[in-house]
């Protein structure tokens, strides 16, 4: 009973709020960045540009795993305690790495990377051959006409009216999107793919630690070096192939289905690969 202590640290709240702010800041990059590229790029070049954007987004986690591997080799209280007085090593199960250091480094780099966005122009001229979505234009035209109708009734709409207009536009857009079968199919397939990928990425480092006796630092380094670069290369090659052969919507769907089905067949090979459990007294074998 004397060894039991109640948790008194509320550090997890700061981590939660920090990740929430990070997510709010990072989220616009994907939808707005892709829309920006799609609007101001030629139709045949857009797939390559978008693929390059996603490839760079995959290189980030790779460097993140390597940075995590480096930080895991440093003791958690680095800068606050005498490192020479620490008698345990990273291979010890009691070792806790400097997990917080990665947040400081990544946050500082993100802050510096955000500065150039302040100098982007508000609008660009569309080049010849750029995408001109007639459906989007008509929808935007209808919304503008609706807003003019509402605003003409009262020159200075109240705050409640503005909120009502915002939610009515949002509900209309959401209904239009959810009634699109192609979008729903893509959304469901993306959910399945990312769910499997995240599970693989989450548990494989721990599997390497337990099964092969590797440290947290080395397992993170191995995952970052072997798992993410092939994904980034695949995304870039997919965009390059679409640009080279100028695939239509149907052609892109067939190409995506073929690659996904091939990946599914290769994934089945995981069921034939495995390792025997460690001999642990009282768990896998008896104490006798």
Q: Report, as a whole number of angstroms, the end-to-end distance.
A: 30 Å
Q: What structural class do you assign from the helix and strand content?
A: mainly alpha
Shape: globular
**What's the Cα radius of gyration?**
26 Å
Q: Which bin fits the share of residues in helices?
A: 55-70%
Description:
This protein has 288 residues and is an all-alpha fold. The protein has a domain at 27-119 and 214-269. Helices cover 66% and strands 0% of the residues. The protein contains ten helices and no strands. The protein is globular and about 75 Å long. The two termini are 30 Å apart.
Question: Which keywords apply here?
Answer:
288 residues, globular, mainly alpha
Summed up:
With 288 residues, the protein is an all-alpha fold.
């Amino acid at each position: 009973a004397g060894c039991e202590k109640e948790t008194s640290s509320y550090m997890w709240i700061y981590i939660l709020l920090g990740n929430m702010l990070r997510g709010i800041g990072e989220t616009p990059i994907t939808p707005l960045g892709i829309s920006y590229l799609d609007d101001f790029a030629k139709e045949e070049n857009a797939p390559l540009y978008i693929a390059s954007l996603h490839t760079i987004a995959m290189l980030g986690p790779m460097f993140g795993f390597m940075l995590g591997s480096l930080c895991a080799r440093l003791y958690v209280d680095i800068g606050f305690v005498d490192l020479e007085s620490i008698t345990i090593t990273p291979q010890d199960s009691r070792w806790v790495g400097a997990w917080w250091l990665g947040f400081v480094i990544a946050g500082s780099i993100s802050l510096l990377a955000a500065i150039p966005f302040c100098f982007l122009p508000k609008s660009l001229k569309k080049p010849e051959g750029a995408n001109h979505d007639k459906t989007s234009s008509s929808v935007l035209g209808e919304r503008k006409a609706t807003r003019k109708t509402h605003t003409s009734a009262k020159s200075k709409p109240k705050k409640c009216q503005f909120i009502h207009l915002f939610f009515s536009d949002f509900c209309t857009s959401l209904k239009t999107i959810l009634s699109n079968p192609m979008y729903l199919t893509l959304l469901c397939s993306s959910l399945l793919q990312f769910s499997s990928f995240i599970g693989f990425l989450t548990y494989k480092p721990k599997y390497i630690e337990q099964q092969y006796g590797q440290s947290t630092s080395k397992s993170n380094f191995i995952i970052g070096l072997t798992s993410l670069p092939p994904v980034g290369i695949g995304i870039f090659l997919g965009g390059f192939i679409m640009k080279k052969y100028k695939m239509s919507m149907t052609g892109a769907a067939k190409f995506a289905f073929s690659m996904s089905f091939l990946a599914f067949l290769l994934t089945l090979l995981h069921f034939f690969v495995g390792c025997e459990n460690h001999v642990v007294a009282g768990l896998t074998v008896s104490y006798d």
